[in-house]
Specification:
Structural class: alpha+beta
Strand content: 25-35%
Shape: globular
Largest sheet: 7 strands, mixed
Helix content: 25-40%
Radius of gyration: 23 Å
Number of strands: 22
Distance between the termini: 21 Å
Number of helices: 11
């Protein structure tokens, strides 16, 4: 395992949890890969991250400063009630206050088109007391009017962020309505273009937006999604999001999977702190290797669920199913620096007990993924009027939430169904469910709880 050795620079580690045993002829290997980053820079400091070639022990570093764009919905619906726009301005002000000096930033006003609210002329400002004051003054001029075309907001954010050499590029997007002035395929094409270029946290305020759209934005750009029903809560949420960005030390880390001949990757999914399918974001990285984006890191730990299909083999044989590496690209495009590595193995056995055992970590996150799917399917069936189907799926969600210790999700489910018996998943749909409760449950359905190792 390779680790940085300079103070203020994060150290990465990789742990693999799996049942290595397969029955004779078995082919499917499943593993949970836990990646942990520790010892990075502290809040308010700008750490120096060295890019080391694989053969070197020291090299010049560069300042991995951050660049941030805040996209504020200024469509006409933000005037209903007028306090919604007021709280959006306050939240953006709070986010600007949370920027550390030296961070590049901009504010975008989003309607059916995107406009630079600050600083303008296709530039990013550099955070200091003077630019923060000017940005806050510009926010006072934001007023609601027009439609909603989120893809245009994201494209402008991408253009602004592309002018910065910062290694950590992040955006915050706030919307209160559906993406009604843009075709769905335009938004998806925009997300495909922006993927890997910056990360984005997406928030829906009020109850007139579409949870699936907000989740799709966050998932496509490796960010978080949430429902903020009360506009007064926006400032605290924006502050928390910006502080999280300011706590990142290194950006653009890739999860690299190398597989031997005749083995292939079936899927790669973020399993904690939320579920997110990364399989389709694979970028080839040489013979039999592919990179999956993980975004920026601070002091934190995440779990990834990896599935590998290996060639069948006889009892007693053993093979390396995959090598997992955390890699950091170099500015000059040379070989990336390897931060940490782990191995996924396969051993064929005729011991039935060994080959049929399910690793607790794998079982836990398989259940978490099923929980998210059960919630989303249950809510869709409820909207379609399929009472029996919705009851069955939401009952299964209640059962899975209880089994995995997901107390927060259990509380949200209890606002949509009456729980008769959580252990068996016996529930009754509530006749009156607030739109806020339903949207919050759907938006937060992909959040997971960590397995106790």
């Amino acid at each position: 395992m390779a680790n940085f050795s300079k103070p203020g620079v994060p150290r990465f580690s990789v742990e693999v949890y799996q049942n290595v045993h397969l029955p004779e002829g078995g082919r499917d290997v499943s593993a949970i890969v836990t990646v942990t980053s520790t010892g990075g820079g502290t809040a308010g400091e700008t750490p120096r991250i060295p890019h080391l070639s694989p053969s070197s022990t020291a090299a010049p570093g560069w300042e991995p400063d951050a660049a941030v764009v805040v996209m504020v919905d200024c469509s006409g619906s933000m005037d209903y009630p007028p306090t919604k726009m007021h709280h959006a301005r306050e939240a953006t002000t709070a986010a600007i206050d949370a920027l550390r000096d030296g961070v590049a930033f901009a504010v975008v006003a989003g309607t059916h088109q995107a406009k630079e609210a600050y600083p303008g002329n296709g530039r990013l400002a550099v955070a200091d007391p003077a630019t923060r004051a000017r940005a806050k003054e510009a926010l006072r001029g934001l007023s609601p009017g027009g439609g909603t075309a989120i893809g245009t907001w994201l494209r402008l954010a991408d253009r602004l962020l592309s002018t910065s050499d910062a290694s950590i590029r992040h955006a915050i997007l706030l919307t209160d309505g559906r993406n009604e002035h843009e075709e769905p395929d335009v938004l998806q094409a925009t997300l495909d273009t922006c993927a890997g270029r910056f990360t984005c946290d997406a928030r829906g305020v009020g109850t007139d937006w579409e949870p699936k759209e907000v989740r799709r934005i966050a998932e496509g750009l490796l960010g978080t999604a949430d429902s903020i029903a009360d506009p007064a809560a926006l400032a605290a949420d924006f502050t928390q999001m910006m502080e999280a960005v300011m706590g990142k030390d290194v950006g653009d880390v890739q999860l690299r999977l190398w597989t031997p001949q005749r083995a292939e990757v079936q899927f790669v999914k973020l399993a904690a702190p939320r579920t997110e399918d990364l399989t389709g974001q694979r970028v080839a990285a040489g013979p039999r290797a592919g990179d999956y984006p993980t975004g920026a890191w601070g002091d934190e730990s995440r779990d990834y669920h990896v599935g590998i299909r290996v060639p069948s083999a006889e009892v007693g044989q053993e093979m390396l199913a995959a090598r997992v590496s955390l890699v950091l690209p170099t500015p000059d495009g040379s070989s990336p620096h390897v931060l940490a590595q782990g191995l996924i193995r396969a051993v064929w056995t005729d011991d039935v007990a060994a080959s049929t055992a399910i690793n607790p970590q794998v079982a836990h996150y398989t259940g978490q993924a099923e929980l998210a799917l059960a919630i989303q399917e249950g809510l869709d069936l409820r909207k379609a009027g399929d009472i029996d189907g919705a009851t069955a799926r939401l009952g299964r969600a209640v059962q899975l939430a209880a089994r995995s210790g997901h107390e927060d999700t259990a509380k949200l489910l209890a606002k949509v169904v009456d729980v008769v018996d959580a252990a068996t998943g016996t529930v009754r749909l509530k006749s009156n469910v607030s739109k806020e409760a339903e949207m919050t449950l759907e938006t937060r359905s992909t959040r997971t709880v960590r397995v106790k190792k």
